[in-house]
Here is the input.
Amino acid sequence: MAEEIVNRVAQSKLVTFNLEEFYPSGERKLLDIKDWLYEGIILREKDFREILQKHEWNQYHGCYVAITCSTDAIVPGWAFMLVTTKLQPYAKRVVQGSLVDLETALYYSVLEKLDYSDYQDKPVIIKGCSNRPVPPNAYIFLIQKLQEVAKSVMYGEACSSVPLFKHK
Here is the structure.
């Protein structure tokens, strides 16, 4: 008679933390201001302000927006702030940088507000694979939070995990 197969992972107290479950839904847009600069490299304030007045800002309604300049132009900080004032009534969140910077900021907001008491004194595994864009820094933010409460933290899948931290 064959032995009964026992799923030890299902019976363990191991808690899985899947960052993908905390992915903020909503469209992401990259706003590149290079086309608003003279020859793509010089910001002329008067021209820049005119372009901002004529731009269709409602296209960013409900979106997360990353503002960038993909050329080597030296853009003063106030220019990005001025663009943000135009986006503010429409966008859910605005950052200066790449789409990865945007994802990092979104995850940081979520992870900062999260209640970690469910992970108190438990072995936790941070799921490694995801179908959504989880930025590397989200894992860094998460491990810092989990170290404060978890008994141990691992990375990967229950069948093949990498130990990261064990509370002494």
Residues 6-11 have pLDDT under 50 and may be disordered. Strands lie at 15-17, 28-32, 64-68, 93-96, 123-127, 152-157, 160-166. Residues 99-113 form the longest helix (15 residues).
